[in-house]
Amino acid sequence: ESGEARRKKMATGQVRASHILIKHEGSRRKASWKDPDGRVISATTRDAAVRQLLALHDDIDSGKACFQDVAVRCSDCSSAKRGGDLGQFIFPPPSFPF
């Protein structure tokens, strides 16, 4: 999707978000769909998780890999089965009076 198409969508107030989550020993919940017992996650340092994410970012940014494919293969979030897609959100979020 082009930058112009994204800007038009943001102007309408809706954005779509995707992410790749790599859990580590400091994660609140040390289990995921691909590591149900949390053994790999518990042995992964925060620095190692950051290095992995940076390497994945480089592969995606250089065109060596597709974001959705990387999310399916590497993300610890259940959104991995949707290519990391978190769905649509209203942007900016409405403010609610107290």
Automatic annotation (TrEMBL):
Q: Which GO terms describe its molecular function?
A: peptidyl-prolyl cis-trans isomerase activity
EC assignment: 5.2.1.8
Ranges where the PpiC domain occurs: 12-98
Source organism, top-level taxon: Eukaryota
Q: Name one GO cellular component term.
A: nucleus
Please provide an example of a Pfam family that matches this protein in its UniProt record: Rotamase
Task: Report which residue ranges the record marks as coiled coil.
Answer: none
The EC category is isomerase
User: Keywords in UniProt for this one?
Assistant: Isomerase, Rotamase
InterPro entries (alphabetical) = PPIase_dom_sf, PPIase_Pin1, PPIase_PpiC
Q: Which reaction does it catalyse?
A: [protein]-peptidylproline (omega=180) = [protein]-peptidylproline (omega=0)
Tell me the PANTHER family matching this sequence. Answer: PEPTIDYL-PROLYL CIS-TRANS ISOMERASE (PTHR10657), PEPTIDYL-PROLYL CIS-TRANS ISOMERASE-RELATED (PTHR10657:SF4)
Kindly provide the name given to this protein in its UniProt entry. Answer: Peptidyl-prolyl cis-trans isomerase
